[in-house]
Amino acid sequence: MPVKVNSQLPAVKLLEADNIFVMDEARAAQQDIRTLNILVVNLMPRKMVTETQILALLSNTPLQINVDFLHMMTHKSKNITQNHLDTFYKSFDDIKADYYDGMIVTGAPVENLAFEAVDYWDELHQILDWSRSHVYSTLHICWGAQAGLYARYGVQKHNMNRKLSGIYRQDVVKNTNPLMRGFDDDFKSPHSRYTEVKAADISHLNDLEILSCGEEVGPSILASKNLREVYSFGHLEYDRDTLAKEYQRDCLAGKNPHIPENYFKNDDPSTRPALSWNLPAAQFFTNWINYAVYQETPYDWKLFEDSALSASL
User: Fold this and answer.
1) DSSP string covering 124-171
2) Which pLDDT tens digit goes with each residue over 45-73?
3) What contacts 119, CB < 8 A, 6 or more positions away?
4) In terms of C-beta density within 10 A (0-12 exposed, 13-18 middle, 19 or more buried), how is residue 164 classed?
5) Residues in the chain, pLDDT under 70
6) Quick check: 101 and 136 in contact, CB under 8 A?
7) Are strands 135-141 and 100-105 parallel, antiparallel or unpaired?
8) How many angstroms separate the CA atoms of 159 and 152, rounded?
9) Burial profile 179-191: b = 16 or more Cβ within 10 angstroms, e = fewer
């Protein structure tokens, strides 16, 4: 997929070094096609890392995508310069009159806080409400998935006995769903969180389907039947060494973390982690772009606006 972003974004050089095609504005203007517009609500502290991870996974089809990044104005980011945010990010006020074919809401390291205690909760809630009429399909990741379920349905998260950290097996339980096309019967995915959503708490939500689950992780991917809401509690976007860096960070912070499970060879943190989720990650993001966004999103957003307004009356 030719991902269209600001050519000065630092992630571009990293992607090009990994042989991932990124299109600049000049070349994109020469293609007479309708560009898909994707909004990434980046809540992760290491924003530049997440930018590269997400863009890499939006690069596997011939579609042209314009990607905008959004940050929370009600939160002060500590791990990124204000200049980077001013140059490459937008605020909700900048985009609230716009329409997007898809939106990605990333995770955030705030699981141990009540949703309302997160300093940008009201702003995020406003964005999720806005997305009902301005975004066709939203993909929520990890805490972003928990936040989406709570904001939309009041589903609570539950504390786990210890942090879930490692690479875990999940079974595909709804292989007829378009998001699961191309998947084997099971797949592996990184998880990194302190809280969980339980299947019993969503079983009454008839519009939502559990697409995959695992013994350790519980429900791992959910989706509404019309694919306008997708919830993934894992981190398929993670790089090979992301969990290793999180483990090292927690060690330095004196949190005495357990070694990520099924990750280092012989549980030895000095070894290079094996990459075992690359294919399902690529398949899942490609399926979301193709089946939930490209195949369904309206060509003329005015028509969608009229139908969405009618449906809300």
Assistant:
1) HHHHHHHHHHHEEEEEEETHHHHHHHHHHH-PPPEEEEEEEEEEEEEE
2) 999 999 999 999 998 777 889 999 999 99
3) 74, 75
4) buried
5) 1-33, 299, 301-313
6) yes
7) parallel
8) 20
9) bbeebeeebbbbb
**What DSSP letter does each residue of 171-230 carry, written as one string?**
EES-TTSGGGTT--SEEEEEEEEEEE--HHHHTT-TTEEEEEEETTTEEEEEEETTSSEE
Name the one residue in this structure whose structure tokens are 């905008």.
Answer: 68
Euclidean distance between CA atoms 271 and 260, whole angstroms: 12
- Residues known to be catalytic: 142, 235, 237
Q: Tell me how long the chain is.
A: 313
Q: Whole-model pTM above 0.90?
A: no
Mean pLDDT for the chain? Answer: 89
Both tokens of 231, joined, read 């919830």
For β-strands 186-196 and 158-172, DSSP reports them as: antiparallel
pLDDT of residue 64: 87
Find the angle CA(129)-CA(133)-CA(136) to the nearest 5 degrees. 105
Helix ranges (H only) for 204-258 are 242-252
Asked if 199 contacts 210 with a C-beta cutoff of 8 angstroms, the reply is: yes
Say if CB 140 and CB 231 are below 8 A apart.
Answer: yes
Tell which residue, 211, 209, 166, has the closest CA to residue 189: 166
Residue tagged 């943190």 (tokens): 269
